[in-house]
TrEMBL record:
Keyword annotations of the record: Signal
Signal peptide: 1-22
Organism this protein belongs to: Phaeobacter gallaeciensis
Record-given protein name: DUF3035 domain-containing protein
Domain of life: Bacteria
Length: 89
């Protein structure tokens, strides 16, 4: 059992090394498309996540809105059920 485990570890090590080497290779098809302006351009500024993501609604407001929506739907369904009962009689 021990040699098999060693073989797996060796294989994973070689696979990791191969992936690392492949990731570091130059891709001329991509790099040759960059204009000189793009090559010398600076990186865009990093922004805090708070500025990038819209805040979620407050749970109390969200639950209140949901409760009102469900109450209105309940009233519509009860009215529809009453109309169907009247139509059957």
């Amino acid at each position: 059992m021990m040699p098999l485990r060693l073989a797996h570890i060796s294989f994973l090590g070689l696979l990791s090394a191969a992936i690392a080497v492949a990731a570091c290779t130059r891709v001329p098809e991509i790099e040759d498309r960059l204009s000189p302006d793009m090559r010398s351009a600076s990186y865009p500024p990093l922004l805090p996540v708070d500025q990038l993501v819209t805040p979620l609604p407050v749970p109390e407001e969200q639950s209140s809105d949901l409760e009102q929506e469900m109450a209105a739907r309940t009233a519509r369904l009860q009215a529809r059920a009453e109309e169907l009962r009247k139509a059957q009689n």
